[in-house]
Design brief:
The structure holds 2 protein chains of 2 kinds.
Chain A: E1 3-10, E2 13-22, H1 26-41, E3 56-67, H2 69-84, E4 88-92, H3 96-104, E5 112-114, H4 117-131
Parallel strand pairs in A: 2-3, 3-4, 4-5
Antiparallel strand pairs in A: 1-2
Helix pairs in contact in A: 1-2
Chain B: E1 12-16, H1 20-32, E2 36-40, H2 43-52, E3 57-61, H3 69-78, E4 85-89, H4 94-102, E5 107-110, H5 115-127, E6 135-140, E7 143-149, H6 153-165, H7 171-192, E8 200-207, E9 211-217, H8 242-249, H9 258-265, E10 268-271, E11 277-283
Parallel strand pairs in B: 1-2, 1-3, 3-4, 4-5
Antiparallel strand pairs in B: 6-7, 7-8, 8-9, 9-11, 10-11
The chains are: A alpha/beta, B alpha/beta.
Chain lengths: ~130, ~280
């Protein structure tokens, strides 16, 4: 498999660093499985690290070399399942190529996209402040 | 990145490369990622090692003294070997690439490459359960025609070689062609061929001074655009992901963005009447 996933936490926001390619097959499946596990860990009965109820996740795509339509579909699937569970997903560190792919499919209007993980985490906290 | 979990023995890689500094560098990157690496400094030594030991994958340089990489490939093919081989070269001559396809190389990686690209390529090749055979119908640099089995793994493999043929084109043009080809070949293999390795998709790549044309013909019954509610191309303007709900209802895998993406990537996209054949064109001037 050509995708490595690394989980960390930054100021109560979960950060998932993706390295490699996100394409239809094993790679997209492993990403979905990882987020499913994070969602399970963030169920209300289990105290999670989120700043808002549900999973607050930043997907760091700065080390992603390539993404196909299967990878895009996986990202959309993550977004809908995280939001359905009361959380939210933000994307960070997109290279020019991935940004172009999101633009051509109009998904840049669906995802919240930030230049860096730091900015995405800040946005979670700004959103939490507004909610309070 | 480590492809081999600690509990399993590491995947074995043979690096055949005459340039000592490159050999050392490749060894360092691969060993650092958990692979067991051996080195050979030319084709003859490489073949000798392959006769004595088993390797999960071979990284093979093309231009080397004594015996070059293409001759190694030919010899392996002659022996009936199914060895996975990744060809690495800065030589983008169509003849080199087409020779490699004909002799069933697994992948092609263009020098120079990053350690991330290298590891991603090695891991993709290792993940492929069995190397499907590709039939070369025409190997003229300006008219390449292939018959490929309907297996997911074949997409990356063919893509790496055909994109190598377009290495003289601007980076963005190559990227667009590569992505369009990936999406449409995957569609053909998945929907037309139902991932059945016994049926074949025909791929042609024609190059003229002013354009690059790809044709992909699958063995399926075709489709109609008005029945593609599960594809992003049918979404209303105000909802870019409406098709995802339909895919979920139908139990389909996430995706459906392929045709929409392709429309933006190429200059012409044409389907035949049954829509089991597609042509796309990128103009070069």
């Amino acid at each position: 498999m050509a995708l490595t996933l690394q989980i960390s936490s930054l100021r109560q926001v979960t950060v998932l660093v993706c390295q490699g390619i996100i394409v239809f097959g094993e790679e997209a499946d492993s990403l979905r499985a990882q987020v499913k596990e994070l969602l399970r860990q963030n169920e209300p009965s289990l105290p999670g690290p989120s700043v808002v109820p549900g999973l607050s996740l930043v997907l760091d795509l700065s080390l992603v070399l390539y993404m196909d339509s299967g990878g895009l579909g996986a990202l959309v699937g993550l977004l809908t399942s995280i939001r359905a569970a009361g959380g939210d997903l933000k994307l960070a560190g997109l290279n020019e190529r991935i940004e172009r792919v999101l633009k051509t499919t109009h998904l840049n209007q669906v995802f919240q996209i930030y230049a860096s993980v730091e900015e995405a985490v800040n946005a979670f906290h700004a959103g939490a402040a507004v909610q309070k | 990145m480590n492809d081999a979990p600690a509990s399993q023995s590491p995947s074995r890689v043979l690096v055949i490369e005459d340039e000592p500094s490159i050999r050392v560098l490749l060894n360092r990157v691969l060993s650092g990622a958990g692979f067991a690496v051996e080195e050979a400094s030319d084709g003859l030594e490489g073949l000798e090692r392959l006769s004595r030991h088993e390797f999960d994958v071979v990284l093979l340089d093309v231009w080397m003294p004594h015996m070059n990489g293409l001759d190694v490939l030919t010899e392996l093919h002659r022996r009936g070997s199914t060895q996975r081989v990744i060809l690495m070269t800065a030589d983008h001559a169509p003849e080199t690439l087409l020779h490699a396809v004909r002799e069933q190389a697994s992948q092609y990686i263009s020098k120079p490459f990053s350690s991330e690209e290298l590891l991603a390529t090695v891991q993709r090749v290792l993940a492929c359960p069995a190397q499907p055979a590709i039939e070369v119908l025409s190997a003229k640099p300006d008219w390449v025609q292939l018959l490929v089995p309907c297996q997911r793994e074949v997409v990356d493999r063919i893509q790496s070689f055909l994109m190598g043929l377009d290495s003289d084109l601007p980076h963005q043009v190559r990227e667009s062609l590569g992505q369009a080809f990936h999406e449409l070949l995957l569609n053909a293999i998945e929907w037309g061929g139902k991932f059945d390795p016994n049926v074949k998709v025909q791929v042609a790549c024609l190059r003229t001074r002013r354009m690059v044309l790809y044709r992909i013909a699958d063995p399926g019954a075709g489709f109609r655009f008005d029945s593609l509610k599960h594809a992003a191309v049918s979404n209303p303007e105000e909802d870019s992901i409406e098709h995802i709900k339909i895919r979920e209802e139908k139990g389909m895998r996430p995706g459906g963005f392929g045709i929409l993406m392709t429309r933006f990537l190429v200059d012409e996209l044409l389907y035949n009447e049954k829509q089991n054949e597609v042509i796309f064109i990128k103009y070069l001037d």
